[in-house]
Amino acid sequence: MVRRCFARVVGKSGELRLNLLHSGEVGLVFQGQTHTFETLEDALDGAAWLPQVPGDLYEALAWELDLLALRGTPPG
Q1: pLDDT score for 54
Q2: Range list of H helices, the chain
């Protein structure tokens, strides 16, 4: 069961979502299929090796997660 959508990226090849699940795991959703991982890092790695996830969506997801990680980090 989905607790909340953590990240959503849309590209020419479709939509990729990272959902935080009530179990504490992360669901990577592409084309109606959900792949479950223990951490966000594992989900990003999973998006890289899953052949059905196109490169443009993987790159957009990596960029989005980088932005979220840097949010609130003081400059310098």
Answers
A1: 93
A2: 40-49, 55-70
